Automatic annotation (TrEMBL):
GO terms for molecular function: transmembrane transporter activity. It comes from the Bacteria. InterPro entries: ABC3_permease_C (IPR003838), MacB_PCD (IPR025857), Macrolide_Exporter_MacB (IPR050250). The keyword Acetylation does not apply. PANTHER family: ABC-TYPE MACROLIDE FAMILY EXPORT SYSTEM PERMEASE COMPONENT 2, MEMBRANE COMPONENT OF TRANSPORTER-RELATED. GO terms for cellular component: plasma membrane. This is FtsX-like permease family protein. It is a multi-pass membrane protein.
Amino acid sequence: MLKNYFKTALRSLLKNKSFTLINIIGLAIGISAAIVIYLVVQYDFSFEKFQPDGNRIYRIVSDISFQGEVSHNSGVPVPLNKVINGITGVQAAAPFHVYSEGDARVSIPTIHNTPTVFKNADNILVCDQKYFSFIPYHWMAGTAVTALQQPNSVVLTASRAKMYFPGMQPKQTLNKVIVYDDTLRLSVTGIVADLDANTDFKFHDFISYTTFKNEAISSTGGDMDGTSGVGAWGHTSSFDQLFIKVNQQAAVKNIKQQLDALITKNTNRSSKATEAHVFKLQPLSDLHFNTDFDNFDQRVANKSVLYSLLGVAAFLLLLGCINFINLTTAQASQRAKEIGIRKTVGGTRLQLVAQLLTETFLLTLAATLISVFLAIYLIKAFSSFIPAGITYHQLFSWPILLFAVLLMVVITLLAGFYPALILSGYQPVQIIKSQHGMPNVKGNALMLRKSLTVFQFAIALFFIMTTLLVGKQIHYIVNKDLGFKKDAVLYIRTPVNSANTDLKQVYCNKLKAIPQIENLGFGGDAPSSPNSHSTTFRYTNGKTEHENDVELKFADTNYLNVYHIKLLAGRNLQAQDSTSNFIINQTYAKLLGFNKPEQAVGQLVTVDHKREQIIGVVADFYQKSLHQAIKPMVLCYGRSGKNMRTIHIALKPQMAGAESWKAALAQMQNAWQQVFPDNDFEFRFVDESIARFYKAEQNTAQLLNWATVISILISCLGLLGLAIFTTNQRTKEIGIRKVMGAGISQIIALLTTDFVKLIVIGFVIALPFAWYAMNQWLQDYAYHTSISIWIFALAIIIVLLIALLSMSVQTFKAATANPIKSLRSE
């Protein structure tokens, strides 16, 4: 019996090749999208699942408020590390410092005095043995207890040890020497196996924390006693982080209260001022998903996006099923007599349902097999959006195969059950007596098909409207005046080992001889940068005391000129200002109570127990993405060479088609090789760096474009099915109208009007949902575009044009048909 079902189903599908092909394509597109989305979601939700006691591990992070706007920092003040174990409820703590995210120079001394050099080494951490009590590494050589106790020690992962010391076994690498940035000469004291689970802890080199203290490695300088620089309670850097393990979940609230009391006590803040800087406990499970804080891997997944992806997958599958239902019922006239004859010769309704579901299953099976190959293409085509840890090989894993089987079962029942019930319910007498082999369709059944079509177009319109808004916001971001020059400006980071030498000045002098360079200067990061350093500034005017966490940026005299940052009052930075004077932004001036910028010039502010002077005020510029509001900020001359090792270069305008910038870059590289022969020449244009802030938006736009095209394609196939069904039902009506004198244009207008009404209804349904979704999405931006009426108008125009085009062939065919054929039996 089962074999007969499959044979009959296969014959039927091959007989209706066009119908079969359209259905397979629609389902294959939906299934392939669902498989790829499942891969992404399953991958992201698997992070940190291997961690023992993961539900009790938290990262302490900082929220710094300003006028209701909150700035998020992954770091904490370094002195907190010394007192954290005294907090009730904390079982263990693991402080660490991110030494390098990708620009360290590692050299391995050899007996031939020619070291092996590894440039741009990344994922280097400064920590102690406590770190390894949180992360379950397997030790291949050395022990967690002793490996990082002494200064000048380093632990490596097996893969990094293999890279540094090829051909050696883990125990053979112990006591080998590694030199970091030509300043730190460290000895290997341990080897750990690489983590084989999905995790954001991607570090490979672990330098002992005692080395950090002894060498005072810091991005801002200062001491470690809690009084100044990196060691001050008022200083917070995203490079200095702290993880804790709590005794029990109930202790979290109590720990938070103790942390608030600590920062109040050690910064001498009032309870009101404490609101400016508060600590939060971020769960380990939140590390991979919280976009407010970094997670070391530079890719933070977004739960809202993942859930949206699941919604997109569900909608695309549902659209494919609706499309199948419409096309199947549209082809009912070709199956009606077959079903009537089967029932006449004794076929039961259950047997007919089983037969029709078997056909649906074969269609779904074929679509699933094709979808696997489509998924391979999608993974490659959307490689910039899909996490690097996902490859097409995973498509053939057991979880994906099981997911595909479940999809086939669900789709078979969802798409095939209703058509099977409808077709198997036809009365054989009515079918056989009908001239066209097609029974009259009840109003409820036709209404259901129209409702399904309305739903399809509501989804398509929703995708189109949101896509247009995302594009509008991206255009707003790209063209927004950020308060500084971003075009034709690049920056080059000189090697860390040159930070306190004359080499960077030698290179700078060579650059000044390049005619295409308009201006250049030294500093820290560009005006808009993902990295942040802040410290506490205090100001009193005799009546009111202002205490604020203020962002620090480092610059020389030419920094403002390179970026065309407008000086509103006072003077520019000078080299002698390195310890006492600084420039503030307009936002900070207003926060201190100065209505006019010039009023702030000459005022004294307390920083690290020292009185320093405001020498100028600059116009506001955006320090980060438009997601965040402009924060109080100061520009000061760098206190250490490490803060001033970046060269910022403004190029002269380039004529269209000219290659003056290319020539300038070649000369920069040539000069670099003369001054820094052991380091690779690397540069980055500022506008490209800013674009990285909006990678998520670019990915969202790409996803929406993809979903929009697919939804429109499937919806138009469904509309085509409804058009076929409707014209078949109204064949005699069309014939009578033509005999009575109706023209082709009138017939086409008659047929399309009903479909246009369905699209308009879909638009009305989609409109409030789209508006709400767009409004919610824009709330993530401190500065954003508006929701314009033209977005909705353009969306429905696009759909109407595509829909009319897709059904024009069928309506024209019906309008030009010979009425004699349809009225011959009347």
